[in-house]
Design brief:
Shape: globular
Structural class: alpha+beta
Order of helices and strands: EHHEHHEEEH
Distance between the termini: 19 Å
Number of domains: 1
CATH topology: Multidrug-efflux Transporter Regulator, Chain: A, Domain 2
Radius of gyration: 15 Å
């Protein structure tokens, strides 16, 4: 079954950024298209971003707004969008509690704040991003455009 994709402009609008930012990140391979995305085949053919890639761009954007370099932010976002866990599919929130991305100097973790105590492992410093809020906002905006 082929996954649904959206054009870069639609993704950018759903996230609230310029399409130029997405194109730059794709051109510089900060974010790379995967098998569920559609590559442009030349002039007149659009690049289609899967939901996973749209979420990766959105999370990357939020992390860069906090001062992280784009490549590091994209790698952290990839842990949510493309790496699953025993109790969580890729690009899915935990069923209960809040799903957060915890980024420390040497570790990236997707945690369930209702059940995980491991956030303290990142002390003395970590960036914590609430993924529930980002996913809900982007999904709602994508729904409006379809």
């Amino acid at each position: 079954m082929k996954s649904v994709t959206v054009p870069i402009g639609t993704a950018a609008k759903a996230i609230g950024i310029s399409p130029k930012v997405i194109r730059r990140w794709l051109d510089h391979r900060t974010i790379e298209l995967r098998r569920n995305d559609v590559r442009s085949r030349g002039t007149g053919s659009y690049c289609g971003l899967s939901r996973n890639r749209v979420m990766q761009v959105a999370i990357t954007h939020h992390l860069t707004e906090l001062g992280l370099p784009p490549k590091r932010a994209a790698q952290a976002a990839f842990e949510f969008t493309d790496v699953g866990e025993r109790d969580r599919e890729p690009c899915a929130l935990h069923d209960f509690g809040r799903t957060v991305l915890v980024l420390g100097p040497e570790r990236i973790r997707i945690a369930n704040t209702g059940f995980d105590v491991g956030i303290a492992d990142f002390v003395p410093a970590a960036v914590i991003l609430d993924l529930n809020t980002i996913v809900a906002s982007v999904d709602a905006n994508l729904q409006e455009t379809s």
